[in-house]
Model the fold of this input.
Amino acid sequence: MIDIDNLYKDYNGQHVLKGLNIRIKEGRKTTIIGSSGCGKSTLLRLILGLEPYNSGEIRIEDQPLHRMNETQLNQIRLKFGMVFQSSALFDSMTVGENIALVLKEHTKLTDGVIKTKVLEALNLVELRDTYYLLPSELSGGMKKRVAFARAIIGDPKILLFDEPTTGLDPITSTTIEDLINTVTQKIGATIVVVTHQISTILRTSEKIIMIHDGVAIKTEGPKKIMKSKNPLVYRFVNGIVEV
Done:
């Protein structure tokens, strides 16, 4: 589904990714972990083709991104749904308008059909009554769920989550984690979650990959990661400061 080979990325000469190799299988939930600044969010932007990389290759369904023109990249992006860390809702639009935007711009569906689909998406994230509200009228957790609804409205094959539970209280975090599991199971998407929240790592993952010093480190998975035999992984998930 997503193949990343020997990927290098730097900013102004500062290397972030240094030969990254990752395989993300279709229909699986893969979680990318690592310390702040290790390149997790950068990786999502590279997968979406929003930034160039220095060398290596990213293939989406065996199609190499670096060989695509902007039209082809836009077609590939329609296969994705993205939940941004900040939710990234348009303040001047209602919840319904925020979610409908993708369908209005990229389909020829009627306004009535679009509204029905938006309400179905809101129902999936248990926010049906927020259709006419503005983002300023929502809590942080509600904004995350609206962003989730927007991400799934176009029936994506791949869903990307950038720190979906950061800044949320434990109960709201659990709600978002449950939604990731239940909703994505219903739509059958491939999931990539970038996070450093332990509860999210343990509750939403099938495969966990840690990025450290620009490369990928395999882990034992959610059932055994807290007792990982790799010292780097063990210290990270248990919050142990190296002295």
